[in-house]
Design goal:
- With 259 residues, the protein is an all-alpha fold.
- 78% of the residues lie in helices and 0% in strands.
């Protein structure tokens, strides 16, 4: 029997169907132990097949119920998938939805997770509002306070919004941020993120920022700056355009001859 158990252990990771066939040759008590380990691991990749086999297996009823509960709460399937999505998007709705699931250890564990998320969100919402109010008058101080928030999408979106406010007030901050980045996709993303804010406050700095783009993106970014600048301050824009390194064909497109 020890030889069969060893075969089952090896096959569990690579061929669970074969492992199940081998486990069926064991005496009932040993078979139940082997199948419990097999089913728990196999469930990660093929929960439907596992649940087909569970009911007829010699597993203890509490082990069967544990697997049934895992199937009900499986975030890849049906109600479990909807519950998992709501836990992130709308934990209050997830808490109500949880009442539809049978009582048990699994439901209690998930209930505690959801309640913890709701509590954290309430704290986060108050702190977010406070930081955002502060950002309107003192964006530098607000940016420093972001460390009080947990990492995640909320913190990152606030960081981007506050940095945009800072850059509108101090456009050269964008140049300082971009210059330290290596030329390539990351630098180009950072330029696109700040270019519009800088354009509103200082088109000349926006032009310098656009010129830091990669060779592949530079002409398009610089051309975009001149298009906006020509609408807001055509005389200064034309003067800068004459001195720019844009191809003559592009310059003529932006400012046709005689204008």
């Amino acid at each position: 029997n020890s030889g069969i158990q060893a075969v089952v252990q090896v096959l569990t990771a690579t061929d669970p169907e074969a492992a199940y066939t081998w486990a069926a040759q064991l005496p009932e008590e040993e078979q139940a132990r082997s199948l419990r380990s097999l089913f728990l691991r196999w469930f990660r990749s093929d929960p439907e097949r596992v649940m087909e086999l569970v009911e007829a297996s010699p597993l203890k009823e509490e082990d069967k119920e544990h697997l049934r509960m895992r199937a009900r709460f499986d975030p890849r399937r049906g109600d479990g998938r909807r519950l998992a999505m709501d836990m992130h998007r709308n934990p209050e709705a997830a808490l109500k939805q949880l009442e539809q699931f049978p009582a048990g250890r699994e439901r209690e564990h998930i209930r505690k997770m959801i309640e913890s998320r709701i509590e954290r969100n309430q704290v986060d919402r108050g702190l977010r509002s406070e930081i955002w109010r502060q950002a309107r008058s003192d964006p530098k101080a607000a940016l420093a306070r972001l460390d009080d928030l947990p990492d995640g999408e909320t913190k990152e979106s606030l960081r981007v919004a506050i940095e945009r406010q800072l850059i509108e007030k101090e456009p050269r901050r964008a140049l300082d941020k971009v210059k330290v980045l290596p030329e390539g996709a990351e630098r180009d993303r950072e330029i696109r993120m700040h270019l519009r804010s800088v354009l509103r406050s200082d088109p000349q700095v926006a032009l310098e920022l656009a010129e830091l783009a990669s060779e592949r993106r530079r002409e398009a970014e610089v051309t975009g700056v001149f298009r906006s600048w020509l609408r807001t301050d055509p005389e200064k824009a034309k003067e800068a355009l004459r001195k720019s390194s844009l191809p003559e064909k592009t310059k003529s497109f932006l400012v046709p001859a005689g204008e």
